[in-house]
Amino acid sequence: MISKEEIKNTIYKCIKELNRQLPEESKLILEEATVIAGENSPLDSLGLATLIICIERHLTSLDININILDKFIESSDPPFITIEEMCLWLLEQLK
Q: Helix or strand or coil: residue 79?
């Protein structure tokens, strides 16, 4: 079973990759409280989709197959707003 720390490290790795492509004002801070979705996120919809796809790809390399983007889009309210919420949400999805 994957741990919260492994998920967080995967998310951070993907944020680092995404940050290399973003302008300075849109870069994400590597902290659990960082907002990655919703009104207060510096990411636009393309940036969020890119981040989610990167996370899905990295999780696949850990033999975890989950379609985060579909579940995010299907939800009437975002299932997560911050990095920590995403970690916890992913842990719940993987049970």
A: coil
- In angstroms, the CA 35 to CA 65 distance is 24
For residue 20, the one-letter residue type is: R
| Whether 76 contacts 61, CB under 8 Å | no
pLDDT bin (cut points 50, 70, 90) of residue 34 is very high
Q: Which domains does the chain have, with CATH numbers?
A: 4-93 (1.10.1200)
CB-based contacts of 81, cutoff 8 Å, min separation 6: 35, 36, 37, 38, 40, 41
The pLDDT of residue 94 is 87
Indicate the burial class of 72 (C-beta count within 10 angstroms; 0-12, 13-18, 19 or more).
middle
**Euclidean distance between CA atoms 93 and 48, whole angstroms:** 19
Mean pLDDT of all residues in 5-18: 96
